[in-house]
Design a protein that fits this description.
heterodimer; A: alpha/beta; Fumarate Reductase Iron-sulfur Protein, Chain B, domain 2; Rossmann fold; 3 domains; four-stranded parallel sheet; three-stranded parallel sheet; globular; B: mainly alpha; 2 helices
């Protein structure tokens, strides 16, 4: 899709030039040269060539705070995604975080490798080869190795999902052959790699005989829900966000929570909140943790601020500034624990927290549920 | 650091034998040739990796 087509598809000609997008943008706040409004204007003024050679296209967090507030409802993140596909073709590439290690893994997954990454699941609880419920684990086995140095043990979250599903009487299918959902490839401007990953996953899930797929990671859930149908056709299995399921189990009394001493605050992930519109479920769960208190940060729900980096690209001093501000905002509520509901938010905020002195700890919501549930 | 790469390779199902890290000084030409030759032989014995064959 060239710029002209993207302008038509996302109707950016409705732009009022009001600047609410730039005023809402967390990147513009710390890096004033980046402006969603200017990007839209340049596309309209046919300054496409200049736009497609600007590496700042990769600084957009695609967090959707601008889209949430845009008076003419311009879907800036999707427009940005279209621009990036063109930019990538024009040779403008993102500055990849972690030496591009994660992108390399994703690309290798389309090259005929046979992964061995479910050993932990068999130790965590009961899992099956075939069955009604497929647990889409996502990148967690890789994150668990790569981010060990900043104290993030991503697989703990996945183990707890299995524990909680087992407690609800479900033995989920986990598969070595599962590939990355493709989210990052899609937002990195590489739709052809995304399509291969998506097709691979859909074929795998169909072969497993699963009727429903449970996602703990908001990116995986949103990508399957929103982008898979566009690229690989309608899905014939149900998609379930783990926190929706957990909230239901808690409200039905099937899952009882206790013993949560402390004060919690909650960071909305952009894919879970603004994109998948799941705002209340995690909060309802947090409010059920007995003997604890839940407090909101000033910027919450639709107004929440991104964790500072997206798609493993352009992690900068600006990202760090966004993260540190967010952590300070969490600490200012009086909370001792910041609850995250996305593996990447947990990684990014933990990275920033490891470099500052703040009386705050970060915990994943799934881990909190598992720690406080009655056996 | 190389241990982390080995762990990632294991997850991807790529034989760990295919990765080797050795530190060789610029004064050790003989040693360099020896290690590269033996590693090349090893890779030839292992044959083609699963990579490059589209899934």
């Amino acid at each position: 899709m060239n710029i002209e087509e993207a302008v038509k598809k996302y109707q950016t000609f409705y732009c009022l030039d009001c600047g609410v997008c730039t005023g809402s943008c967390p990147v513009s706040r710390v890096q004033p040269s980046f402006s969603p409004r200017i990007i839209v204007e340049k596309a309209l003024l046919e300054l496409g060539d200049e736009l497609l050679h600007d590496r700042e296209l990769w600084s957009c967090l695609t967090c959707g705070r601008c889209f949430e507030r845009c008076p003419t409802n311009i879907n800036f993140p999707e427009f940005m995604r279209a621009l990036r596909e063109e930019a990538f073709k024009a040779g403008t590439t993102p500055l990849l975080a972690h030496h591009g290690m994660l992108q390399t893994i994703m690309e290798l997954q389309t090259q005929g490798i046979h992964q061995k990454k479910t050993g932990w699941a068999h130790e965590a609880g009961k899992v099956a080869e075939k069955g009604d419920t497929f647990f889409f684990v996502g990148c967690m086995p890789y994150f668990d190795v790569i981010f060990r140095d900043i104290g993030v043990d991503s697989l703990t979250t996945s183990r707890q999902v299995i524990k909680i599903l087992n407690a609800a009487g479900i033995e989920p299918v986990v598969s070595d052959e599962e590939a990355c959902c493709g989210h990052d490839m899609l937002w990195n401007g590489k739709p052809e790699v995304f399509q291969k990953l998506a097709q691979h996953n859909v074929d795998l899930i169909r072969r497993s005989g699963a009727k429903r797929v449970v996602f703990n990671c908001p990116e995986g859930y949103y990508t399957f829900k929103h982008h898979y149908p566009q690229y690989v056709g309608e899905l014939d299995f149900e998609l379930i966000q783990f926190y929706d399921m957990a909230e239901r189990l808690v409200s039905e009394g099937a899952l009882k929570l206790r013993n949560g001493s402390g004060v919690y605050t909650y960071h909305d992930p952009c894919r879970l909140g603004r994109m998948a519109r799941i705002f209340e479920g995690p909060r309802n769960i947090l409010k059920q943790v007995a003997d604890s208190h839940f407090v909101e940060m000033e910027r919450n729900r639709e107004n929440a601020v991104c964790c500072g980096t997206s798609g493993w690209a352009n992690c900068s001093t600006g990202s760090k500034q966004i993260q540190v501000e967010r952590l300070k905002e969490a600490a200012a509520t009086g909370a001792d624990t910041l609850i995250t509901a996305c593996p990447k938010c947990q990684i990014h905020l933990s990275c920033a927290l490891s470099n500052i002195d703040l009386p705050l700890q970060i915990k994943d919501l799934t881990t909190l549920i598992a720690e406080t549930m009655e056996a | 650091m190389v241990e982390m790469t080995r762990e990632l390779m294991r997850l991807m199902g790529i034989d760990n034998e295919r990765l080797e890290l050795q530190w060789i000084s610029s004064a050790e030409g003989g040693r360099f040739a020896e290690i590269v030759t033996s590693f090349t032989d090893k890779i030839k014995t292992l044959g083609k990796s699963p990579l490059g064959v589209a899934a």
